[in-house]
Specification:
By secondary structure, this protein is an alpha+beta fold. Helices cover about 50% and strands about 20% of the residues. It is built from six helices and five strands; from the N terminus they run H-E-E-H-H-H-H-H-E-E-E. It has helices spanning about 15-40, 70, 75-100, 105-125, 130-140, 155; strands at about 45-50, 60-65, 160-165, 170-175, 180-185. It has a three-stranded antiparallel beta sheet with strand order 3-4-5, with no helix packed on it. A two-stranded antiparallel sheet has the order 1-2.
Length: about 190
């Protein structure tokens, strides 16, 4: 039997990393949705028109400011409701897959991907490309979560307690208690 691997001490399992990343992406998606909603409802766009009288004398400039919501309320509402629905479905899907330890895409992932694609297309055609990052986050959330690492034969048998070459010091022994390295060390005997 070999000594425990020093590189795996303190490392998170692959599935845990994926789960943490999913919840971080969910938080990012909610913040993106809030930012998008704020931009559509609160940020005003100033437009101006120049009118010439044709004689070259007087030019009239008019300015108007309005939000995207004021210009296209039905479209903005549809986009925000569609994205909010996709967020809720994504959240339920991620929570369900984490609690059930599912590694499959599933029906909810396909529904979210289809809904997000339709809403993103509508958003790109009407309000512009700034909807794409949120749509990409929602599609990534629909992807499968990594499975748990399978235990190897060595891990199932566990390394028995004993003195092994210290993974940090090349000229010392360190005691392995069967689960972790202890603080007990001993110098290696010089070769004869």
């Amino acid at each position: 039997m070999s000594a425990p691997d020093a590189n795996t001490r303190g490392a998170w399992p692959r599935r845990t990393k994926h789960v943490v990343a999913r919840f971080a992406l969910l938080l990012g998606a909610y913040l993106s949705w809030l930012g998008l909603a704020w931009a559509m409802v609160s940020v005003t766009a100033v437009s101006s028109a120049t009118i010439s009288s044709g004689t070259g004398r007087a030019t009239v400039v008019t300015q108007s400011s309005s939000t995207l919501y004021q210009n296209q309320p039905t479209t903005v509402r549809s986009i925000l409701i569609g994205l909010a629905t996709a967020l809720v479905i994504s959240t339920a899907s991620v929570v369900w897959r984490v609690t059930r330890r599912s590694t499959r895409l599933g029906v909810s992932g396909m529904v979210v991907a289809a809904l997000v694609s339709a809403v993103a297309l509508l958003g790109i055609l009407t309000i512009g490309l700034f909807i794409v990052p949120l749509a990409a986050l929602l599609v990534v959330l629909a992807l499968p979560i990594a499975p748990e690492a399978k235990l190897t034969h060595l891990a199932q048998d566990a390394v028995p307690p004993g003195w092994y070459r210290d993974p940090e010091l090349s000229d010392a022994w360190r005691y392995w208690d069967g689960q972790s390295w202890t603080a007990h060390t001993a110098p290696m005997a010089p070769p004869d």
